[in-house]
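quick one if you have a minute, typing this from the bus. theres a chain ive been looking at and ive put its sequence and its fold in C-alpha cell form underneath. please have a look and point out which stretches look like helix strand or loop to you. anything you notice is useful, everything is just below.

***
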Amino acid sequence: MQVQGKVAIVTGGASGLGRATAEALVAGGARVAIFDLSDDLGQTLAGQLGSAAIYQHVNVTSEAEVKAAIAATLQALGAIHFCINCAGIGSAAKTVSKGEPHTLEQFQRIVGVNLIGTFNVLRLAAVAMTKNAPEGASGERGVVINTASIAAWDGQMGQAAYAASKAGVVGLSLPVARDLARDGIRCNCIAPGLFETPMMRGLPDKIREGIQLQIEYPKRFGLAEEYAKLALAIIDNPYLNGESIRLDAASRLPPR
C-alpha cells in the first residue's frame, strides 16, 4: 500500500523503534496515532509532528483503553490503514535462581504485554481496516506489522518469559495473516536483533562491548531508523505476507 494519505497506529510510539516508525510514516505522508503510556514523550512527539499526529494514553493489555483509543483515532483521523505493534517490555530472571522459582506474576506480565497486548491491538485495529475501500490490483485494505525479537529463536539464560512472549508473536503472525486474507489485510512480523535502544545505552561499556561481539556485519547495534525502513518496505510490498523477518546483522545469541 502507499503510505501517502494513510493513517497508522503505532504502539510504543513515543520512543525507540516506535518513535522512529511514527516519524518515518509522517515523513512519507501518513498521519499517525501514537499509543503509549509515556505521556510526556508521547505528547512531545505529537507536538513535534504537528497536525499529522495525535497521542493516546493506552495500556495495550486493556480492551477498554484500546477500544477507546481506536475510536478516538477514527474520529480524529478518519480511518486506520496500518497497525505497527512496537510496545513491549523485557525481563531477566532464571527459571530457578538460588532455590527460588521464576515468579508467575513476572512471567504473566511479560507475556501479557508482549503477546496478548499485540493481539489485543491488532484484532481491534483490523476491524476498522475491514471498513476501508480496497486499493490496488490486490484490493488491499490494511497492513499489520508485529514486533518480535531474535530471542524468539535464540533466547538466552534468564529470558524464558521474554523469549516465550516473542516466540508467541512470531507464531501469531502467520495465522493472523491467513485469518485476514479475505479482508485484504496483510500481517507480517519484524524480529529485531541487538538495537541501539535506551535500555541498551544504559548498560556499562564493558557489557555493551561483549554484546556487540555477537553481531556479524555491520558490527554495530541496529538503529531505530533501520527498523522503520523495513516497516515501510513491508507496507509498500503487496506480496509480502505472513512472514517473520530477522533484522539482526546475522547475529545469533549465545546461551548467555
